[in-house]
Amino acid sequence: MITIVQGTTNKPVSARRLADFFARPIEDDGFLYIGYPIIGTAEGPYPIDALLVSKSKGLVVFSLMEGRDMTGLQDIQDDSYNKLESKLRAHRSLMRGRNLRVPINPVTFAPARNDAANLFEDGYPICNEANLEAWLDDCEWDDSDPNYFESLVAGIQAISTIRKGRKRRDVQRPDSRGAKLKRLEDSIANLDNLQGRAVIETVDGVQRIRGLAESGKTIVLALKAAYLHAQHPDWKIAVTFNTRSLKGQFRQLINTFTIEQTNEEPDWDNIQVIHAWGAPGSGDRNDLYYSFCQSHDVEYQDFGSAKRNFGQGKEFEGACRKALDECPHPSGIYDAILVDEAQDFPPAFLRMCYELLKPEKRLVYAYDELQNLRDCLKIKLLILSYKFCIFWRFYTVFPRILL
């Protein structure tokens, strides 16, 4: 069975038809990635249109064509092949001497061309649904075994690793900050398949990432923010949270992940790491609640005034409700908002995030399902009742990281 992992793409029709082709029963195991991976090069980010990782075929790298124009076909296939090969050569487990152990098979998928079989050029295949299966039958991975395949999937899904220093980190105490950092470094390169899908798959609407405490939800959100920023550098993206100390960690992770995917630092004007509730102002003092108040000309409530007006323990909930009540027709200013520690927020704040989004309503929130279970149920019921016909997808992140 081929597992289809749907990322973002600017070629939706051909991507959908390719996904439909592999959604039917096929005697093969592997993954089909749409809009992934993104490879950092000297010229900037290079997105791969689609990639099949197969136990029997090795790698099939697809160049997707939406229309009938085949201009530049050879250059596109050559670039995809060369950049993907360069990325994989960094993994010693995939090498035998100086040779890559896995074959890379480039192909152009042009479903709009009924004459694709007649356009086949030596070394530069062109396929549609009619002749793709026959072409795939000629692709073989003779050196395949379970160990190589697992290494290949890890190489493709290892979206990033935190670069270690030249000296090996020597941990003296298991509870030290150095020990925690080492566990963080080791964990990022070992995202399992489910976590990888949570990072890559993107839909218009609400996505939920659930997991136990310290199961890697923060890392998944940082990876997802970097992936969305790499694919859509013009999007306005906000990453928000409850614990103030997470701001530095999020910025460091997103910066590292973005550099590895694009070979460039992120544009911090378009990807904002921002507190949920801080204080009015700029820079580190700014917060998402203040952004809502400022953009909709609503009175801002600081902690002191919110406590006087709404009572102890209800400060933030009351402030968010008041702002929403005073703005019956809010407008969206963000293309995507990612919320960490959602179980610590009142439902009104999640609704505020929803209102701050543009019509596609790309809200991604992660929560610890064993904390504040009652509030989590309230959040889900609120969004379900409020979002009407939005596509809902969720992921479970298993407790593998920072245990």
**Proportion of residues in β-strands:** 15-25%
| CATH topology term of the largest domain | Rossmann fold
Q: Count the E strands.
A: 16
Question: What is the CATH level 1 assignment of the largest domain?
Answer: Alpha Beta
Sum up the overall morphology in one term: elongated
Which sequence of SSEs, written as H and E, runs from N to C?
Answer: EHEEEEEHEEEEHHHHEHEHEHHHEHEHE
Structural class: alpha/beta
Strand count, sense and barrel status of the largest sheet are: 6 strands, mixed
Number of separate structural domains: 2
CATH H-level superfamily of the largest domain:
P-loop containing nucleotide triphosphate hydrolases
Arithmetic mean of pLDDT: 81
If helices are DSSP runs of H or I spanning 4 or more residues, what is the number of helices? 13
The strands making up the biggest β-sheet line up spatially as 1-2-5-6-9-10
Unreliable stretches covering 5 or more consecutive residues: 160-168, 386-392, 397-403
Percentage of residues assigned to helices: 25-40%
- Please give the radius of gyration in angstroms: 23 Å
Report on this structure:
- It is built from 13 helices and 16 strands.
- The chain is of the alpha/beta class and 403 residues long.
- The protein folds into two domains: 2-157, Trna Endonuclease, Chain: A, domain 1, CATH 3.40.1350; 200-397, Rossmann fold (3-Layer(aba) Sandwich).
- Helix 6 (193-200) crosses helix 7 (217-231).
- The model is unreliable at 160-168, 386-392 and 397-403 (pLDDT under 50).
